[in-house]
Structure formats: structure tokens, C-alpha cells
Amino acid sequence: MIDISRTLNADTPTWPEDEPFSYDLTASKAETGSVNIGQFTTSCHTATHIDAPFHFNDSGLTVDQLPIDLYMGPVLIIDLTTKQRITPEDLNFINLSDVRRVILKTDAWPNGDPFPTEIPELDSRLGAFFHEHGIELVGVDLPSVDPLDSKSLDTHHAFEENDIHILEGVALDGVEAGHYYLSALPLKLEGADGSPVRAVLQSI
């Protein structure tokens, strides 16, 4: 089992102006006589998380409306660590037969590093390309599938238009390209635009 989740703590990098992660022990065992009770606050898009279409489309599906089988099953990790821009042409040599989920490894945001100032760009044409090849979930080791300063979010929208869902912020340090079994289930958050996940790979 390989944990590809980023740790949530006070030092977890977050989107600028986003709600940072915090955990507080609001009642101790000494106070309650039986248990410790904590609470946490965070943005839905901190560390390793999924985007629901509602994140960028007011009429898009929310987290609780997404089919959970998207986030469990065989996945192909593709090594694209030399690319500053990822296009369909970069993937023409990959055999995507019988592949439903892919994770693109860029190594552009190593686990533990501060929030990046720039990341590789994913060409919006990848939406149609992945749809043509039967891909339904695309993961990245980046905070976003679009440039960090994008307001139009072209790749997010291209993915939604092609029924492709998004997993962001996975930690792939030391993980080799190849086939694995993925589990990255979101919390069942009613009406939410995203959710943290505990993303785990298993060798197959």
C-alpha cells in the first residue's frame, strides 16, 4: 500500500487567501472525563482532494452526487516529469486500452514543498482526448489542472464537458509509473464543491 495523500496540518500549503487547515482539541479527556474531542477547519481544496463540477459550474454536480466508483479501481500513472505543457500528443505513445483512470506525474510540486508559483499547463484538448479513450478520472500531483492564475479554467470545463472528473494534489514522490489500484474516496459532503481524500495506491 502506498499513501499518496498530503498530510493535513498547520503547515499544509494552501491556495492564497483560502482557508488554511487547522485542528484544535476543543475538549480534553481531562475536561470531559471520558474522551478527547477535536474539530478541524479547512478549504475543500486543500492538499489531496477532488473537485466536484459545482466548484466551477453553478449547475454542476456536488460531491454527494458523484458516483463513488470513480474513485476506486485500477489506475495508470503516467510519467510526464519532463513536460512544462502537457498535450494529447505527449500521450500518443501510451496504451490507454481498458484504462478508466489516469494520474499524471509531473514532480513539479514535491510533497512538503511550499505552494508553487507556477505549474505545468494541461492543454484543454486533453478533455476530448481522454473522453475518446474512455478515461473518466484524471489525477495530478499539482494543486490544479489549470494555470494557477486562470479565471476561465478552460481545462476544468473541458474535462466536465467530456465527463471527466478531477483528483488534485496527490503526492507521487518515489512512485513509479505503471498500473496500480487506487482508492481516493471523497467525504459524503452534501452540496459541497470539493472534498479532501485519503488517496492510496496498491500494487497490482
Question: How would you characterize this protein structure?
Answer:
This protein has a 9-stranded mixed β-sheet with strand order 1-13-11-5-7-9-10-4-12, with helices on one face. Strands 2-3 form a two-stranded antiparallel ribbon. Strands 6-8 form a two-stranded parallel sheet. Helix 2 packs parallel to helix 3. The chain has 204 residues and is mainly beta. It has 3 helices and 13 strands, in the order E-E-H-E-E-E-E-E-E-H-E-H-E-E-E-E. Helix 3 links the parallel strand 9 and strand 10. It is globular. It has a single domain (2-203), classed as Glucose Oxidase, domain 1 (3-Layer(bba) Sandwich).
Uncertain ranges: none
CATH homologous superfamily annotation: Putative cyclase
In the CATH hierarchy, what is the class?
Alpha Beta
| CATH fold field value | Glucose Oxidase, domain 1
Mean model confidence by pLDDT: 97
**Net shape:** globular
Structural class: mainly beta
Described by strand count, sense and barrel closure, the largest sheet is: 9 strands, mixed
Count of extended strands: 13
What's the alpha carbon Rg, rounded to whole Å?
17 Å
| Count, helices | 3
H/E element order: EEHEEEEEEHEHEEEE
List the domain count as a whole number. 1
Strand content: 25-35%
* CATH-scheme architecture: 3-Layer(bba) Sandwich
CA-CA gap between termini:
10 Å
Please bin the fraction of helical residues.
under 10%
